[in-house]
């Protein structure tokens, strides 16, 4: 790297050291818990979706979920004039939901050539930090919906959606409450959406899946719907309205909710995904004090390297309040009388 670039890189190191309250970032350091929370907030800011769920710090690698929920009705009456006694009910659920965190690395580098190109920006350090935070936020979204396993040695080529980095929310449900995840309709291993299929449209699908959530838990529900499903639904509605403004308005209004529930399509969400749950039911746990970082100049590879690691996991706080279907099993009409 040229002299000016090196100065900018040193400024970046100094800025990060100041932000983390450490003397040097060239040796691996642990992030102080008070600074760690600020770091988590900055990562969350890079994602609208993460801003609407829980990103929480916990002390242990394994434990019980930390957000309580009312599992069911608790009000009643007992005649205590005889032998009967009042028996309290378990407020936080019959099943003990637990979590487990796993070490996660987010290691990046920047070549000297790219560093020279970026050095012209006066806010180089701010840009760099924002890019790192944004990428970690995106990765968390990908893992949340696609993660199925925790590999000792991950393979980005075989698992481009980070399936082997950690177990996401869908995998949590598969292991804790598989009955709430629809895997097939009338055809084995397939869920068909469209005329002649298991569900005529998204209204039908959402209304049906909703029955899997007890009525007392149907609060603040949101249907998370993939963009491919939304696109198909919108195309079908607008196709028959031509240029009639009133019909277009009616079509637009009909897309406001599905099955009476508001919907959203999070970034990095599977195109054929459908999940119904309160956003407050989704969590990412990060172990307090587990974040470690180190910046290195690597002249052998003509680049600078930035190593980040922390222990984190994905949790559904109340599995009873989460229903969905297996994204990869969904088929849509192929336009030729079949399904694809």
Overview of this structure, please?
The structure is a single chain. The protein is an alpha+beta fold and 340 residues long. It has two domains: 3-71 and 88-168 and 281-317, Major capsid protein gp5 fold; 179-280 and 321-331. The chain contains eight helices and 17 strands. The protein has helices at 3-20, 33-44, 112-118, 124-146, 169-176, 202-210, 227-239, 245-254; strands at residues 29-30, 54-58, 62-64, 98-100, 102-105, 108-111, 181-182, 191-192, 221-225, 257-258, 261-264, 274-278, 282-287, 292-298, 303-316, 323-325, 330-331. Helix 1 crosses helix 4 (124-146). The longest helix has 23 residues, at 124-146.
CATH uppermost class of the largest domain: Alpha Beta
Q: Determine the number of helices (DSSP H or I, runs of at least 4 residues).
A: 8
By CATH, the topology of the largest domain is Major capsid protein gp5 fold
The assigned structural class equals alpha+beta
Q: How many individual domains? A: 2
Characterize the main sheet: 7 strands, mixed
Overall shape: it is globular
**Whole-number average pLDDT?**
90
Task: Point out poorly predicted stretches.
Answer: none
Give the structure's gist in a few sentences.
The chain is of the alpha+beta class. Helices cover 29% and strands 21% of the residues.
Features:
single chain; 340 residues; Major capsid protein gp5 fold; 2 domains; 29% helix
Sequence-ordered SSE layout with sheet pairings:
Layout (H helix, E strand, L loop, with lengths): L2 H18 L8 E2 L2 H12 L9 E5 L3 E3 L33 E3 L1 E4 L2 E4 H7 L5 H23 L22 H8 L4 E2 L8 E2 L9 H9 L10 E5 L1 H13 L5 H10 L2 E2 L2 E4 L9 E5 L3 E6 L4 E7 L4 E14 L6 E3 L4 E2 L9
Parallel strand pairs: 2-13, 7-16, 8-17, 9-11
Antiparallel strand pairs: 1-14, 3-4, 5-15, 6-15, 9-12, 10-11, 12-16, 13-15, 14-15
Helix pairs in contact: 1-4
């Amino acid at each position: 790297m040229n002299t000016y670039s090196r100065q900018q890189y040193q400024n970046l190191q100094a800025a990060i050291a100041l932000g983390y309250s450490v003397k040097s970032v060239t040796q691996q350091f642990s992030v102080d818990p008070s600074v760690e929370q600020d770091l988590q907030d900055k990562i969350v800011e890079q994602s609208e979706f993460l801003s609407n769920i829980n990103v929480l710090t916990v002390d242990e690698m394994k434990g019980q979920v930390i957000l309580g929920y009312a599992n069911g009705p608790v009000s009643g009456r007992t005649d205590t004039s005889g032998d009967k006694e009042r028996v309290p009910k378990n407020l936080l659920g019959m099943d003990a939901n637990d979590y487990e965190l796993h070490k996660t690395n987010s290691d990046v580098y920047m070549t000297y050539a790219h560093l020279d190109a970026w050095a012209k920006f006066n806010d180089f350090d701010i840009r760099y930090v924002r890019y790192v935070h944004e990428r970690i936020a995106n990765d968390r979204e990908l893992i949340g919906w696609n993660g199925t396993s925790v590999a000792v040695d991950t393979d980005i080529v075989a698992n481009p959606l980070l399936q082997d980095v950690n177990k996401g929310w869908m995998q949590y449900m598969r292991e804790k409450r598989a009955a709430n995840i629809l895997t097939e309709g009338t055809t084995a291993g397939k869920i068909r959406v469209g005329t002649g299929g298991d569900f005529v449209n998204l209204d039908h699908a959402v209304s049906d899946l909703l029955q899997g959530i007890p009525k007392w838990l149907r609060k603040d529900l949101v249907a998370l719907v993939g963009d491919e499903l939304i696109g198909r639904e919108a195309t079908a509605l607008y196709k028959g309205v031509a240029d009639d403004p009133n019909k277009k308005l009616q079509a637009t209004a009909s897309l406001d909710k599905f099955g009476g529930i508001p919907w959203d399509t999070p970034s990095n969400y599977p195109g054929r995904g459908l999940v119904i749950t309160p956003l407050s039911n989704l969590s990412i746990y990060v172990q307090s004090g587990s974040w470690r970082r180190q910046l290195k100049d690597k002249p052998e590879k003509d680049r600078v390297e930035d190593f980040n690691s922390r222990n984190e996991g994905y949790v559904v706080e109340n599995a009873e309040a989460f229903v969905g279907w297996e994204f990869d099993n969904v088929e849509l009409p192929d336009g030729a009388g079949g399904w694809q």
